[in-house]
Amino acid sequence: MRYEAKHEPNGWRSQAPQGVGKVEFKTSTRDWRRLRLIPLVIAVIAMAFGLWTGLQRLGLPLPGTTYPPNDLHSAFMIAGFLGTVISLERAVALGRWWAYAAPALSGFGAIILISNAPYAAALAFMAAGAVLLAVTVCIAKRQFAMFTIVLAIAAACWTVGTILWAPDNQCPP
Fold this sequence. Notes:
Elements: E1 5-8, E2 11-14, E3 24-25, H1 29-33, H2 37-57, H3 73-94, H4 101-114, H5 118-142, H6 146-165
Antiparallel strand pairs: 1-2, 2-3
Helix pairs in contact: 2-3, 2-4, 3-4, 3-5, 4-5, 5-6
C-alpha cells in the first residue's frame, strides 16, 4: 500500500493509518532558513575588510596595515560583499537548493581571500559567478523583464571580470 506525505506547518508527516509504520520528518523550513545567515555574516565580514582596505587606499594610517593589501579592496567589495548578498537574494527568489551554491561559493571565496590566497579565491568567485549566471537566466526565463535581463548580464560580467582579475592573469591596466 502506498502512502503519500502531506505538508504540515511543523514538518512532513505521512498519512499512514494508526499502527502502520508511520514515518515522520520533523524538519521545518524555518530551520533551513537560518542557514541563510551564514553567507550574510560572511558578506558583512567581507564588507568590513573592504572598508578597511578602502581606508588604506585613501592613505589613512591604520593599525595592522600589513594585511590585507589595499589592492584587494575591489575583490572584497565586489565579489566578497556584493556578490554574496546579491546571489543570496537571487537564490531566495528562485527557491531552488542549487541556487544557494552561488552565495556559498562567494562567501567561501571571501574567507579564502581573507586568509591570503587570492588565486583560490578567484576560482571560488568564478564558480559563484557561473552559478549566479545560471540562476539569473532561470529567473529571466520565468519573469522576462528588463531588470532580470540586466541581472543576467551583470552575472556574466562578474564571471568575466573575475577571470580578468585573477592574480596570475596578466591583463593590461
